[in-house]
Design a protein that fits this description.
heterodimer; A: about 400 residues; alpha+beta; 2 domains; ten-stranded mixed β-sheet; two-stranded antiparallel sheet; 16 strands; B: about 240 residues; alpha/beta; Rossmann fold; five-stranded parallel β-sheet; four-stranded antiparallel β-sheet; disordered C terminus
């Protein structure tokens, strides 16, 4: 290291507080606009990547953004439901593969996703251990859930009631974990997957209890009339589905009217996709078929516009910071005139003194730049989580 | 050949020159030296009233200031004929300077302060000394002045007498043939005055250096070979 550079480094090291404040100010000045840009672009890339892999999404008419965010990331508000009959109608068209989703319920903050096994194939999700759900009441955990809840295959998770004050509403269902997925770096890591029918059981549309037709269930019968058995309040429902009681679980009502949050449509080609979209062009039937990437791009256009304004504001703030730093710097040069005079009398040239000052500036700016890059690197690792946190609200 | 020769040297501070030397607030001050010759190894006390140009004389001899007329020759080099880089090289290699207010850098350790001429000279290739040799030389000097145990301390942890001893070590780093001291005892108590003057004389003798020291202290004059009153050199020498 040359003499001037060495002296510059010693000056900064001696004036630790001053150097730290300078470096922190410049780091923040560099970090904020860059971080905003990186956060937005990384998040946009992550968002659109999942959306790009989801060709079409059908849901109830309403906010397309809410439908997409809920169906792709299991966040945001609950869109209105579509009926199971819609799924059957779509399947009847033969225009592709259709995967139902029911994302209304949670377990300790993790979304419970009612779906079919096609979902795993569609998303390319692989099991790290165990097996896929096969029986009513079984579930498969995303890698993140297994870690967060500390549950493995063979363990249990319990669905959370929608509201503790609704005694006639959704009861917790104890579900057996039969498999855990490999990490996918997507929203699937934080989800609990169950068969679509299990999600209806959680919703209270299906339940299990002792068979009231049997003579030994007499205590639970309120009346028997014309072959219709009415149970009394002493009949308790099963809170867990087991091999022993699974046969006693049943659904009341017309299952074709049971609710779905949305249906992922996977047409085999563009032609089928176009035909499918044509069927749902009008919202007369209360349905909408959206292209998730188009919906998200619309959102991102707004985000990018806002981002540009934010960056412009930060740049103006940065210029003001630079001006203040330069003022402080020039004042400090005035205070150091005696020191420079001494150096000059000993034999230092103006160039040498300039180099000394330049070395201090270089250390501060390079240090700030490296620190800002480190912060951006760290932030980049958590960009998606940060975005998902925002989406939770 | 004398160490210092000056003949018909005319100097007047310009406003701009004065602004670059904060120690001098003498814009417009003029001096004229008819003749001065200082022999090698001589130890001279330069006296005179305040404002008579003692510091200006030292600055002319060190090549910090350039005269408007006349000749300044030091150790065979005619300074007025040297370019800026050569003058700086001359100053680093051949002149050791001790100032009244010590002028140590607060952000460097004692050892680094002594090595400061090396840090400056290194970038302009004005020193051939390796860093290890320079460090060894600085440590030796500090040992000689009794500060070996303080080499990593900061200047503000030392007493004024100790700080001036460090400044003397810095001046002696490059074995300069010429040692210039501008009121080095001005800020010291009596005991430290004696110590610092002893040190300067001892170092000058050890190194066979010519010592030119400005002082107002009459009690120190008997220690020098020659006492020179600047008024005897100058035809003007009073602030205009």
């Amino acid at each position: 290291m040359s003499g001037a550079w060495y002296l510059g480094s010693r000056y900064l090291a001696f004036h630790k507080l001053k150097s730290t404040i300078l470096i922190a100010s410049i780091t923040l000045m560099l970090f904020h606009p860059a971080a905003t840009r990186v956060l937005v672009s990384d998040s946009a890339a992550a968002l659109t990547a999942r959306a790009d892999r989801t060709p079409l999404l059908l849901g109830a008419a309403g906010s397309p953004l809410e439908l997409v965010l809920n169906s792709l990331y299991f966040h945001a508000g609950q869109p209105s439901a579509v009926s199971n009959e819609t799924l059957a109608q779509m399947q009847a068209t033969g225009l592709g593969k259709f995967i139902p989703l029911n994302t209304r319920f949670h377990s300790r903050g993790n979304p419970i996703v009612g779906t079919t096994l096609d979902y795993f194939t569609f998303r390319g999700l692989k099991l790290a251990g165990g097996r896929q759900f096969g029986m009513l009441g079984e579930c498969v955990l995303g890698a993140g859930v297994a870690v967060q809840q500390g549950v493995k295959s063979g363990g249990y998770v319990v669905s959370s009631p929608e509201t503790v004050f609704d005694i006639a509403g959704v009861y917790p269902l104890k579900m057996k974990v039969v498999g855990v997925l490999e990490p996918s770096g997507s929203a699937d890591d934080d989800a609990i997957f169950v068969d679509i029918r299990t999600s209806w059981v959680i919703q209270g549309l299906g339940h299990g209890h002792q068979d009231l037709a049997r003579p030994e269930a007499g205590a639970g019968v309120l009346s028997r009339k014309d072959g219709v058995i009415t149970a009394n309040a002493s009949v308790s429902q099963y809170a867990e589905i087991t091999v022993d009681n699974v046969a006693e679980f049943h659904f009341h009502g017309d299952t074709s009217q049971f609710p779905l949050t949305s249906i992922i449509a996977v047409p085999p080609d563009d032609k089928n996709a176009t035909l499918l979209r044509g069927r749902y062009l009008s919202n007369d039937d209360g349905l909408q078929l959206v292209v998730p990437s188009a919906v998200l791009n619309e959102l991102l256009d707004t985000v990018f516009t806002v981002q540009n304004y934010v960056i412009l504001g930060l740049a103006i703030l940065g210029l003001a910071t630079v001006a203040v730093i330069m003022l402080v710097f020039l004042l400090s040069q005035q205070l150091r005139r005696g020191e420079f005079h001494t150096l000059s009398r000993i034999g230092a040239s103006k160039t040498y003194i300039g180099l000394l000052v330049a070395s201090e500036l270089a250390f501060v700016f390079v240090g700030s730049l490296l620190l800002a890059m480190l912060l951006i690197f760290i932030m980049r690792q958590y960009a998606l989580q940060i975005l998902q946190t925002f989406l939770t609200f | 050949m004398p160490m210092i020769e000056m003949a018909n040297v005319a100097f007047r501070y310009q406003a701009a020159a004065a602004s670059t030397t904060p120690a001098n607030q003498n814009a417009g001050f003029a001096m004229h030296i008819r003749t001065l010759a200082v022999g090698r190894g001589e130890r001279i006390a330069l006296v005179g009233p305040s404002g008579s140009g003692k510091t200006t004389l030292l600055s002319l001899v060190a090549g910090i200031l350039r005269p408007q007329g006349g000749r300044v020759q030091v150790n065979g080099l005619e300074l007025s004929r040297l370019g800026n880089a050569a003058v700086r090289q001359f100053r680093i290699g051949q002149v050791g300077q001790v100032f009244q207010s010590f002028e140590l850098l607060d952000y460097l350790s004692i050892l680094e302060n002594v090595m400061l001429p090396w840090y400056i000279g290194r970038d302009s290739s004005n020193t051939q000394m390796e860093k290890a040799d320079c460090r060894h030389r600085a440590q030796t000097l500090l040992e000689e002045v009794g500060l070996a145990s303080r080499i990593n301390d900061r200047p503000d942890h030392l007493s004024q007498g100790e700080q001036q001893r460090v400044a003397v070590c810095r001046a002696m780093l490059n074995h300069p043939p010429l040692l210039l001291a501008d009121e080095p005892t001005g800020n010291l108590d009596q005991a430290n005055k004696q110590t610092v003057v002893d040190l300067l004389l001892e170092q000058a003798q050890q190194n066979d250096s010519t010592l030119l020291m400005v002082t107002h202290d009459q009690s120190l004059l008997e220690r020098f070979d020659t006492v020179l009153d600047i008024r005897s050199l100058s035809s003007e020498g009073v602030p205009s």
